[in-house]
Design brief:
CATH class of the largest domain in chain A: Alpha Beta
CATH class of the largest domain in chain B: Mainly Alpha
Number of strands of chain A: 23
CATH architecture of the largest domain in chain B: Orthogonal Bundle
Structural class of chain B: mainly alpha
Strand order of the largest sheet of chain B: 2-3
Number of strands of chain B: 5
Strand content of chain B: under 5%
Largest sheet of chain B: 2 strands, antiparallel
Helix content of chain A: 10-25%
Shape of chain B: extended
Distance between the termini of chain B: 71 Å
CATH superfamily of the largest domain in chain B: Cytochrome c-like domain
CATH architecture of the largest domain in chain A: Alpha-Beta Complex
CATH topology of the largest domain in chain A: Sulfite Oxidase, Chain A, domain 2
Order of helices and strands of chain B: HHHHHEHEHHHHEEEHHHHHH
Helix content of chain B: 40-55%
Structural class of chain A: alpha+beta
Oligomer: heterodimer
Largest sheet of chain A: 5 strands, mixed
Largest interface: A-B, 117 and 103 residues
Distance between the termini of chain A: 62 Å
Number of domains of chain A: 3
Chain lengths: ~450, ~350
């Protein structure tokens, strides 16, 4: 390619490759051929968006994409986000776990809008990796203290009346790295172990009515078909209240990462109780004390004793814009936005502080306000470069007010790992950059 | 179609709505306020079986025999319910533990790298850095038996015989000074085992904090102490360098190796085998395992020939269990997986 240095040539090829990657093979070949012809003639600037002077696609110029045709239908039979959104992905902090099979990744909350988490971005938590399950060979057995033990195929489960409900799903370790002090430099890592989807399936109470629970039946063991045999004891009250045996999320079949083809959903409760790849429900008179309800997912207090069966995710909130990943890039008006949620029900109100909790004002809630569901709040700020200590404080319908980190530490010490739902602080510097800080 | 069937069809779109409105007209007010309230409260009040079938089951699904259930019914409770017949000694357990467990948990339960520590830690639960082990924290021995049986060894879950589970459980209890060296654990004596921390747990007593909803003059601004987050321990390249630098999770050299050699033709099934059976040790070099992507680790072993590597992978050597603990894999699959690892390490 004449007229280009080797470095420029590599950059050009890289750009062309990126810009053509959503095209089919034939279109891609043609695109690259045309681009190279132009490059030979030194006219590449007119054809290639990002390499060209940035102004060529801005008015008064007519952008290249307006003077050409785009890809046709079925270029992507299962659609993907724009390749300009590539950095919107799940991430993790490598030192958190020994390996990636029993590990966790976080949702990029700073890039999401509304209350629904797209299926590909729902945070992951596996105890033995993601099993590859053939739905035709998947079975759910319900047995134990029942009148009629029953085995269900997926087709049979889909014959029951279904419900669709929007509920958050949160790991109780969300924020758990910061009991002793702030450690994470990004919203994705301070709060990303939460997602919210519309879940579709059969109420567990409907299935329990089929098998007939004996009067001694007070607990249910829910067990997964994964290599960890992930299992938790669930009290009967919850099962009869709002638990759902789920086969779809956000309109499509569950993703493998989320338990395909079948999972439990215990709304408002710590995520690990919503057993994925659900294969078995056993009714018993006592809890089982599985590994994930003794060794893990128990909350060690300062006196050396530990709380067990800490199921509910208490009221919590965080500001998502601005955040370390989304600094204020100019002076003027900005929408300050965030998420609030409570495992006890609906969000009643969210208060905002700009001065580290000295004064508070109520922020409007927007969109749907549903029980045990992410809820958006927002308010407009005319920022003129002054430093801020930005906080949000959520109140749920039980009247519970989200606590401060000092209150949590005073009550529980710093070793409980789970259920840290304290008011979070973002420090906005005068240059608009945002840092994670803790105020005590 | 009968009138009843028609109404059932319409009702099915309302889920529990029909039955509920008939039995409790007041509830229809809450329907207009919130569909959420309707389904939450309706679930407690009206089952679809009541609405549609006079409370009788729909009879969807098949009756299942105890023989079929038994294959999956593996749970064990603190009172010993669910334990199969069998026994295992501390002595037998030590040998099995060395073969199947020590790789990650250490010969004395001390834990390798970030893999769980199983022993020690007694008396540390009130300390600044508590060590939560089987001996210091776990309330019931049944949890140990159940977890080893359902999920261990990590790369080959549900591969152990009942007697092996008894023996390994006995040995881990022995590592924690809970049973003597000559102890034999059986179905009969199991429930008598007392764990040191059995009384260390109590049921959730939250909400435990009452934060008043103060709106002004809540704090003295001069007394606010600010602590900044630690720098450099969480990934930031993806937003600080204003662009995407790929996934934040880098497993040692492994990610780098796989992206550099992405042009290699890979059988997805073999990659899957590597990911699920081999990666745990070979990504990070656990127990001296040659690391994927590090040619030097493999070249020394290649001097003895590829056939020798196949042999060791199939039969096991030192920390390497036979077939990585996956007896279900064929020799051919193991060989193909070794080839894959050599390719990915550019050590062919």
């Amino acid at each position: 390619m004449s007229g280009f240095s080797e470095k420029e040539e590599q950059k050009l090829l890289g750009t062309l490759e990126r810009e053509s990657e959503n095209l089919g093979i034939t279109e891609r070949r043609q695109f690259l051929k045309n681009a190279l012809l132009f490059a030979g003639g030194g006219a590449v600037a007119a054809q290639s968006g990002s390499l060209a002077a940035a102004s060529s696609n801005l008015p008064p110029s007519v952008p290249s994409w307006t003077r050409s045709l785009g890809a046709g239908v079925l270029t992507n039979p299962y659609g993907k986000p724009s390749h300009y959104e590539k950095e919107v992905q799940r991430r993790t902090v490598p030192w958190l776990t020994a390996d990636s099979i029993s590990s966790i990744s976080m949702t990029p909350l700073h890039k999401l809008k509304g209350i629904i988490t797209p299926n590909g971005l729902v945070f992951e938590r596996y105890h033995g990796g993601v099993p590859v399950i053939n739905p035709d060979e998947h079975r759910l057995i319900i047995h134990g203290l029942v009148d009629r033990p029953i085995i269900f195929t997926m087709d049979e489960l889909r014959r029951f009346p279904s419900v669709s409900e929007i509920k958050f799903l949160e790991c109780p370790a969300n924020g758990g790295m910061e009991w002793r002090g702030p450690q994470m430099e990004a919203l994705q890592f301070t709060h990303g172990m939460i997602s919210c989807c519309e879940w579709t399936g059969v109420r567990l109470s409907t299935l329990l009515a089929e098998v007939g629970i004996k009067t001694e039946g007070k607990w249910i063991l829910a067990e997964g078909a994964d290599g960890a045999g992930m299992a938790r004891s669930i009290p009967m009250d919850k099962a009869l209240d709002d638990a759902i045996v789920v086969y779809a999320q956000n309109g499509e079949a569950l993703r493998p990462e989320q338990g395909y083809p079948l999972r439990l959903m215990n709304p408002g409760w710590e995520g690990n109780t919503s057993i994925k790849w659900l294969r078995r429900l056993e009714i018993g008179d006592k809890p089982w004390y599985m590994r994930e309800e003794t060794s893990k997912y128990t909350d060690l207090m300062e006196d050396g004793r530990a709380r067990k069966f800490t199921f509910v995710q208490e009221c919590n909130s965080v500001i998502t814009t601005p955040s370390p990943e989304v600094p204020l890039k100019a002076k003027g008006w900005f929408e300050i936005e965030g998420l609030a949620w409570s495992g006890h029900g609906k969000i009643k109100a969210v208060d905002i502080s700009l001065d580290g909790g000295v004064t508070w004002q109520e922020a409007p809630l927007k969109g749907l306000v549903l029980s045990k569901c992410l809820t958006r709040f927002s308010f407009m700020l005319n920022w003129q470069g002054e430093p801020l200590l930005l906080q949000s404080r959520a109140i749920d319908e039980t009247g519970y007010v989200q606590p401060t980190i000092s209150q949590l530490r005073e009550q529980r010490g710093v070793n409980s790992i789970y259920h840290k739902n304290s008011i979070h602080t973002w420090k906005v510097n005068s240059d608009g950059s945002v840092q994670n800080v803790q105020l005590t | 179609m009968t009138k009843l069937a028609l109404s059932a069809l319409f009702c099915s779109s309302l889920l529990f709505g029909c039955g509920q409105n008939q039995s409790d007209p007041k509830q229809s007010d809450s329907v207009s306020n919130s569909s959420e309230q309707m389904t939450d409260s309706a679930a407690k009040q009206t089952l679809p079986q009541q609405s549609y079938n006079s409370g009788k089951p729909f009879s969807i699904g098949q009756p299942v025999s105890q023989d079929v259930i038994a294959g999956w019914d593996i749970d064990v409770r603190p009172d010993g319910l669910g334990l199969p017949k069998g026994s295992g000694s501390v002595e037998d357990g030590e040998e099995l533990y060395e073969q199947k467990c020590a790789l990650c948990h250490g010969s004395f339960g001390e834990g390798v790298k970030r893999w769980p520590k199983l022993s020690g830690g007694q008396g540390t639960l009130v300390e600044d850095k508590p060590e939560k082990t089987v001996g210091s924290y776990w309330p019931y021995a049944s949890t140990l038996w159940d977890y080893i049986n359902r999920a261990m060894p990590f790369t080959a879950p549900q591969s152990l015989e009942a007697d092996e589970v008894y023996a390994i459980t006995a040995y881990v209890l022995n590592l924690n000074d809970i049973v003597d060296d000559d102890f034999v654990l059986t179905q009969e004596n199991f429930a008598a085992i007392q764990m040191p921390n059995k009384d260390g747990f109590y049921t959730d007593d939250r909400p435990d904090i009452k934060n008043p909803r103060c709106m002004s003059d809540c704090l003295d601004p001069a007394k606010i102490k600010e602590t900044a987050s630690l720098r450099g321990i969480s990934p930031t390249d993806h937003f600080k360098n204003d662009g995407n630098t790929g996934v934040a999770y880098k497993e040692d050299d492994h990610q780098a190796a796989s992206s550099e050699t992405a042009e290699i033709d890979i059988d997805p099934e073999i990659k899957q085998t590597y990911d699920t059976a081999c990666k745990v040790c070979h990504a990070g070099g656990l127990a001296g395992a040659p690391k994927l992507g590090v040619a030097a680790d493999w070249k020394a072993r290649l001097e003895l020939g590829t056939e020798n590597i196949y042999k060791n992978a199939i039969n096991g050597l030192n920390g390497m269990p036979p077939k990585g603990g996956r007896a279900d894999l064929s020799d051919e699959t193991i060989k193909a997986t070794v080839d894959y690892m050599l390719k990915m390490s550019q050590a062919e």
